[in-house]
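sorry for the late reply, my laptop died twice this morning and i had to redo everyting from scratch. anyway the thing you sent over, i finally got around to it. pasting the sequence first so we're on the same page, its 332 residues, then the predicted structure underneath. double check i copied it right bc i was rushing
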Amino acid sequence: MRAAVLTGFGDETVLTLVNDHPRPVPREREVLIRVKACALSCTDLHARSGDMSMFIDPPCVPGYEISGVVEEVGALTEAFSVGDEVVALSPLDCRYGGCAEYSVQKVQDVVAKPSSVVHEDAAASLAAGVLAYTALHYQLKVIAGETILIVGGASDRAHIAVQLASTLGLRVITTARTAEEISYLEDANVKLARIVDLSTTDLLEAVLEETGGLGVDAILDPSGDPSDADTMVDSLAVLGRWAHSAPDLQLDPPDSRRLFLKSASVSFFWEQAWVMSSGQQGRLMHIISDLMSKVRQDEVRPKVQYAMPLEKIQQAHRVLTTNRVGKVVVKL
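ok and here's the structure:
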């Protein structure tokens, strides 16, 4: 089979296209998926660079947001049959991920895909949707009527969060840095309280202006940038909640003291956390099933900004490093 093989850690050149890679065989409680689309995110960049080397042992096939068709089922597999359309959020330690014609996944990581949802949209909704769902429901525990700041609302990791937050009845403030991002957000058919153009406007001033000086009830920051901690802390209201995705976030004692005085909280979110514990699989399957239902009903509209063939996997990774709107998807 054709596969993009991660041969080591480094830049995009460590990804090699192999035309005769052995096709994997599903074992007990596994399914073989004929991949139709695999979305990329910063998790792929971290995996490639070696930041996640404790989970990854090259050579292997990367790609963690998969949509395709069941080709073969292993023993003791009753939930799926050959021909079923499915999606899967693949764990980092999977040796046969989605950047190949075929991928093997454990049954507990696989969810049925509505037939009316195209594979590119299904794949594009997975990591971004799981991140949004995790932050909004499990960590921020948002309530209709609250005000939330979502950083980089047009990005691959935030554009679904903006949509879900709006459907939950939240007042959504989001940020953008380019005309392309602002254009997408204005045309996205999502009710927004304000789009803060960070190229011309101070974020803290805009937040305090929009909230009457009180600050926001919640912040969802999937940017992975830990450098704006002071602004985030000052933007929070009393009892505010801040969900962040930067693994190297460090708070100075003054920041911690201000959080304490507000009785505010900080939490971290990462889509791969769900697939690291078999005890969480039921919740993950519920999240993905609900996301697929929302995509089918047009309540959530994933944005596929770039759809590229597997042969251009290195170029797809280069695009991923600079893309600011929507998702990059590999098509097969």
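The two ends are 12 Å apart (CA to CA).
thats about all i looked at so far, will dig more tmrw
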